[in-house]
Amino acid sequence: MENEQIHNLLKFISYPEDLRKLTLNELPLVCEELRQDIIKELSCNPGHFAASLGVVELTVALHYVYNTPYDRIVWDVGHQAYAHKILTGRREVFSTNRKFKGIRPFPSPEESEYDTFTCGHASNSISAALGMAVAAQKKGDRKRHVIAVIGDGSMSGGLAFEGLNNASSTPNNLLIILNDNNMSIDRSVGGMKEYLFNLTTSNRYNRLRFEASKMLFKMGVLNESRRKSLIRFANSLKSMLAQQQNIFEGMNIRYFGPINGHDVKNLTRILHDIKDMQGPKILHLHTIKGKGFEPAEKQATLWHAPGKFDPQTGERFVANTNGMPPLFQEVFGNTLVELASMNDKIIGVTPAMPTGCSMNILMDKMPDKAFDVGIAEGHAVTFSGGMAKDGLIPFCNIYSSFMQRAYDNIIHDVAIQKLHVIFCLDRAGLVGEDGPTHHGVFDMAYLRPIPNLTIASPLDEHELRRMMYTAQLPDKGPFVIRYPRGRGSLTDWECPLEEIPVGKGRKLTDGNEIAVITIGPIGKAAAEAIDMATKEGISIAHYDLRYLKPLDEELLHEVGRQFKKVITVEDGVIKGGMGSAVLEFMSDNNYYPHVKRIGIPDLFIEHGSVQELHSLCEIDAPAICKAIIQMHNQEV
Question: Which class is domain 506-633?
Answer without folding.
Answer: alpha beta
